[in-house]
# Entry
Amino acid sequence: MTEDDQRRGTRRHRPALIALVAVAAVVCLGMAWWQWDRFESTSGTGQNLGYAFQWPMFAVAFIYAYRRFVVMEADPEDAVRKQNRHGDVTEIPAHLLPQRPGASAMPSLDSADPDEARLASYNEALKEIAAEDAAAPSSSAGAETTPRSPR
# Structure
């Protein structure tokens, strides 16, 4: 919506979108009619009855979604203000988030646990390989490279 449209209070109507919503609602109502006919037939079940009541709700959902789209398109800031007024949370408070592990959570080479020491050694070898790859000139496109294993 342009600023002129906002100042004048006019809304843009989109005929294709209105037609899509109308067709979707009519199709949903047609599906409800069909399910009702299936329910009334000799082979109808309770499932058909449930679908007969469910399809009109889909039609209402299409119409409601279009209406919300038009309102939010007209003034998106107003929609955000209304949400905040009703107490909706817009961001997660920092005290609810888990703490990220720091450097102290990483295993060290002088750890008493042999598994942690082996993991730290492996990580150091990977760092060295990455540093060597970064320092090495890039190979030509046709040359094959062989993967290296950590030391």
